[in-house]
Amino acid sequence: MSKILVIAEHLDGKLNSSTARCVSAAHAVKPAAIDVLVLAADAAAIAAEAARIEGVSKVLALSRAENAHALAAILAPQIAAVAGNGYSHVFAPSTTFGKDLLPRVAALLGVAQVSDVMTVAATHTFQRPIYAGNAIITVEAPASSVVVATIRTASWPAAASTSTSAPIEAASADVSLPTHTRFVELAQGKSDRPDLQGASKVISGGRALGSAENFAVIYQLADKIGAAVGASRAAVDAGYVPSDLQVGQTGKIIAPELYVAIGISGAIQHLTGIKDAGTIVAINKDAEAPIFEIADYGLVGDLFKIVPELEAAL
Amino acid sequence: MKILVGYKRVVDYNVRIQVKPDGSGVVTDGVKLSANPFDDIALEEALRLREKGIASEVVVVTIGPANAQAHIRNGLAMGANRAIHVVSEEAIQPLTAARAMLKLIDKEQPGIVILGKQAIDDDCNQTGQMLAALWDRPQATFASKIEISGQVARVTREVDAGLETIEVDLPAVITTDLRLNEPRFIKLPDIMKAKSKPLETLQFADLAVEAGDHLKTTRFEPPAKRSKGVMVKDAAELVAALKAKGLL
Ligand SMILES: Cc1cc2nc3c(=O)[nH]c(=O)nc-3n(C[C@H](O)[C@H](O)[C@H](O)COP(=O)(O)OP(=O)(O)OC[C@H]3O[C@@H](n4cnc5c(N)ncnc54)[C@H](O)[C@@H]3O)c2cc1C
Ligand SMILES: Nc1ncnc2c1ncn2[C@@H]1O[C@H](COP(=O)(O)O)[C@@H](O)[C@H]1O
Asked: In this complex, which of B177, B215, B238 lies closest to A299 when CB atoms are compared?
């Protein structure tokens, strides 16, 4: 029977919703147990949050001073040790946290990793995207070894939270940890706006905005409807917005209910990040822009005229 | 200090990939092949570290078919001192690539290994992290800034929450993100010069890498298509349509 270990992602003492999405993917394997592993300096509060995710069998709280920051070189040996306790699968979200961490775990276990699981076909069979989502492949992991996989969060809903709590156990991993990797700082884009990866509405701007100052029109429109703000790579490269707003193959893969692309041409690398969105709206002055091929609603025109009109019409 | 750079050849990022009708793979016959964009960035960074006097030698490593020679010459033309071509007609998976690179590390003893954060064909984003684990050395993934002082690298990483800075002791594996640098263009005279640079060719089998790619791909499919929607004439019509759908 399958027994799945889900690695919790958290920041500033709060569980990331990517964890509940991994639990959804774990459900799809129809396992005997889904355990969530929380690694932190003090895991108690985060573990309590994880224990309320529906379908979780138990939460393992691994508190250790070295776990204050999510450094892969430090977390991976602990996870590999815990995985050795009879787990058939180890899942983590394919956010930058999981992408950095899980291959290191896989290599310590001497197994391959399945990246970006979109669907679970069977306990060892999964679908994942390649070539920026231009092809979807079905891959089979060997039945004899642990399956290590990152979960494409945009493909999975967050498992619901329950009022009852799964049991929480203190865990330990008797491994020595390296000192060769040290956290220095995290510069976070502080914002009261919804988180890009969890938001139900996202408004994105592209190169057409032309400057950081002009990008203000995107923020204003987003605030008016309570949306998160995203951007194309070109807008990030040009310095209009910080890098954590990039949507696409090499940025964030998102699945909001509403996605509005403003002054974005619709390069394949951008589209791969949004094709699970519920409704896509495109505003572009070029009627031939590829973004219109996948947009549910398209509007041709100058964004600097249309965006204020939209704001007024709301 | 020597820097080893991963330099994979992939289908060019501008090519529209088509899945073969029988689901056995994607069409790669006659399509344009190029260096993985992240590996161009890796090579550029290594060259800059050499130009700053931090590195003394830059070695590009390609694991790929025998006909990847022209690709490797591009890496030499861009400025690498020499190249290692591990010839494998079969595509190999990240764990195997990492194991093969570890063999080269044993021989070359680099101070830094720079790889791309992901190859844009398999989109795995695994090899650097796996190599660091097998080598038992630090990893600094998704780098957008690298500063070396003595035996320590201070690396700024693009993470979902923003920009994270970590410090790692060398030797270490670093993987590149898009904003680390902008790769230089190859100049014609450099292509000529590259012809005389050393290129070592090894057979994959001779590396005696632990056998076995582990994942079996059983099927290729095109992605689900989104159907083309409607065009609206102005902002008012758009707002009305979105309101009708309950999205606003
Ligand atoms: C390896 C690799 C990875 C990449 N990863 C990503 C990724 O993750 N995300 C990403 O977004 N890109 C990515 N890219 C880049 C991608 O290929 C495109 O270059 C990028 O998405 C283009 O951004 P853009 O649409 O903002 O700019 P452009 O392509 O320049 O488009 C600007 C658009 O704005 C329109 N426009 C101009 N002025 C106005 C106006 N006044 N009003 C209305 N419309 C106007 C134009 O008609 C045009 O369609 C990647 C590329 C590579 C090689
Ligand atoms: N066959 C290969 N030849 C050279 N470098 C490779 C090869 N495979 C992977 N790499 C390196 O590993 C990085 C990440 O690849 P991947 O894990 O497949 O996404 C690439 O950007 C390369 O730097």
From this structure: B238
